[in-house]
Amino acid sequence: MTAADYFQWWRQAPFATALFQTAMQQTEPSQFVDANAVFKIVTGLTEQQLQQSQAVQFTLRALYFSANTGFYYQVNSHAPEPGYQLVTMHQLPDVAISRQQVPLRGADRLTAVLLELTQRFVGVTAEMLAPLLQQTLQELGQAVAADRVYIFDYDFVLQTCSNTHEWCAPGIMPEIQSLQQVPLAAIPQWVSTHQHGREMYIPDVPSLPDRDALKLILQPQGIKSLLTLPIRDADGVLGFVGFDSVRHYHYYTEQERLLLSVFARVLANLKRQQQRWQRED
């Protein structure tokens, strides 16, 4: 396996990674080989700038500040094989520059939306729920700059899942009609991940292997980056809420993913409330 092949394992990492080819002589510059979507978002470099970059630009410092995200990242590197250098950047969630230095970013806006919506659903009636959910999906999508936000229900009796609610940004094609009764057998890894209470985060869909089952489903929808979080309670997983990025690749910080998991828990409570309403009818 070459270093370039080896890097394919790192493309879906939820942290920034880039591969450089090192010169035989230490005095000669290294050569950029590849980078995952997270690395491009964290650094904010264009493709042309990446092609001209060198590993030393990142490895000379232990911490890297991203103007795009407002966070600091710990920089590490190692040689996967002679002649190559893999650079990784891991977010330090508790180390951010002060709010006086940069304007409020996505996580701050997302926090405000979540605080408001937790109050919004108190005392909600069956008639109010559908339009309220639609409004909430729109606000969350705008807060994290997603192009499509949706809710799916799992049906483990029929072994299918169906899209029940969807919001799309202007110019984004809805997919809800084509995503009914999707066989769970088509997405076993997806289902297993949710059943174990974990998120499904794919920052770079096009880089998935060509025959990957998820890529065959996601790429026709034009999805570049995706995050789905399980909706679950004590009895198991009920469904999931998802966020698609179509126009651009999107990097979700650890803080954003944690905040969105709070919304998934709110949805679990609402689904149980729906079941109680149905029993009362």
Rounded to an integer, what's the Rg over CA atoms? 21 Å
CATH architecture of the largest domain: 2-Layer Sandwich
How do the helices and strands follow one another from N- to C-terminus? Answer: HEEHHHEEEHHEEEHEHEEH
Strand content: 25-35%
- N→C terminal distance: 61 Å
- How are the strands of the biggest sheet laid out side by side? 8-7-6-11-10-9
- What's the domain count? 2
Low-pLDDT stretches: 96-104
Q: Looking at the chains present, what oligomeric state does this protein adopt?
A: single chain
Shape: elongated
Spell out the CATH superfamily of the largest domain.
Answer: GAF domain
Largest sheet: 6 strands, antiparallel
Fraction of residues in H or I helices: 25-40%
Write the CATH fold name of the largest domain. Answer: Beta-Lactamase
So what's the CATH class of the largest domain? Alpha Beta
- Helix-strand makeup class: alpha+beta
Q: What number is the mean pLDDT?
A: 84
Annotation, overall tally of beta strands: 11
Counted by DSSP, the helix tally is: 9
Summarize the model shown.
This protein is an alpha+beta fold and 281 residues long. It has helices at 3-7, 37-43, 47-51, 56-59, 106-120, 126-143, 188-195, 213-218, 254-280; strands spanning 16-21, 31-35, 63-65, 71-78, 84-96, 148-155, 160-168, 182-183, 200-202, 225-233, 236-245.
What does this protein look like?
With 281 residues, the chain is α+β, with helices and mostly antiparallel strands. It has helices at 3-7, 37-43, 47-51, 56-59, 106-120, 126-143, 188-195, 213-218, 254-280, and strands spanning 16-21, 31-35, 63-65, 71-78, 84-96, 148-155, 160-168, 182-183, 200-202, 225-233, 236-245. 34% of the residues lie in helices and 27% in strands. The radius of gyration is 21 Å and the shape is elongated.
